[in-house]
Amino acid sequence: MKRKIVNTLLSAVLLSALFLTGCGNSKTAEAGGAGSDAAAGSEAEAGASGKDLLAQIQEKGEIVVAMEGTWAPWTYHDENDNLVGYDTEVAKLIAEKLGVTASFVEGEWDGLLAGLDAGRYDIMVNGVDITEERQKKYDFSTPYAYNRTAVIVKGDYEEIQSMEDLDGKHTANTISSTYAEVAESYGAEVTGVDDLNQTFELLLTGRIDATLNAEVTYYDYMKAHPDANIKIATLASDATQVAIPFRKGAETESLKEAVNQAIAELSAEGKLTELSEKYFGTDISRAE
Question: Is residue 160 helix, strand or coil?
């Protein structure tokens, strides 16, 4: 008799569980709308909360920003070990416009985009150039800076006078950076490094022929190392556009719109010009 009662109770529990599971699946299907795979994907991206990324950020009161922290004057540590730089301040101002605070996570370049892909960071603010290849994978904000690429060599090196002269030469950059891609497009053999300091060490010790980087980065380096035996051999004719990458998908659309609005306001208020002149000595926030 007792065994019969126990079996009856177990059957009731199992039936209840199956009923609840069926209800849950019905609600998911309704939210997806007529079995729409796209809608179901967007809902999965938004996470268990069902909110898009901007809503999640504003609910937390914090936006997680990825950057290297070793690339002056974009993002670096000052003499008191405070994280400073153009990108650092731009990120803080954007966060203010969104009504949240910026929380910074530092890492090597190659890991930053991977972390963005995995959702460990909300955005990456690190002098990221818009390229055709990156646009296939990421959405970008409107540009907040413009860059000319410089080919930097030792002071007595004369074999590079144009971008075409990079063919067959040895250069160094973080391997997935725009500058590495540019060097390779001109036929250079690129050595992968972790950061800017390592790049200049290789150059100064003669282990590479040249390195490519932002023109303003060269001037900033020379300001800190006035006796460095390096020079700009040539400059690329066109400026690249620097912007903020986002994961593609419905989850990030409202965040991208809010960031674009923040950039437009900061530009109109003269804040981007002010920060450009503070860190670069010139206004890099405008294409001209």
Answer: coil
